[in-house]
Amino acid sequence: MSDELSSTPSEKTPETERGVILIPYPNIVFLWPAWVVSLIACIVLSLWKVDPDSVAAVRITWFFVIVLSINLVVLAFDFPRATSFMLFFILLAIFLGGMLAMRSFPNFLPAVSAYLNSLHPSVNSTFFFLFATVMTFIYIGVAITARFDYWEVRPNELLHHHGVLSDLERFSSPHLRVSKEINDLFEYVLCGSGRLILKPDTEMREVVLDNVFFINTKEKNITKLLGALQVQVREKS
Predict the structure, then answer these.
(1) Rounded Cα–Cα distance for residues 121 and 142 (Å)
(2) Tell me: the pLDDT tens digits for 151-168?
């Protein structure tokens, strides 16, 4: 009686060992907070019949403008860990400096407050409805496009699915090198996203995938997938 080694995977192979799906997304996905705020604002202004010139409408509009502005800053600039901590300390210094200015120059803050109070940005529910609708259609388009362009890491190969007719490229993956980069702390906070760099051993070029969601989980599953050696033992008479 002898033992025969077979590389045939068992029927109970975990999901992560059958393949890891990697989908790179465009930067517009990071605008989801502004999209959510616009949906909520549209519902609130419509159901409660809020007057566009009321204080409540002005505050809702201010909140939307602030969220959208922060979203656009996240899209425009990269905030690595060091830069993010530096930005935090800069904002803290500005806050403490403002508190000191309030004590030293009592008339400074009232002047700023009077200017801000003179601004009354306000829009009706129709604006928020149109903004939310446009963003919804864009996100639907992104989801559909992702179905026609994604990568799949399997135990022995790297697959690139692309095109309407599901064109397929195959690369050998037993010696696949994987690098993970988190270049923007805020993008990671918003979607858990980052950059994955795949380097098949048989290819000269690298595959760079930006904005991969839940990148830590994906990288962990790929490492487990490529690092595990499945061996099935069978007895033969």
Answers:
(1) 31
(2) 998 888 888 888 877 788
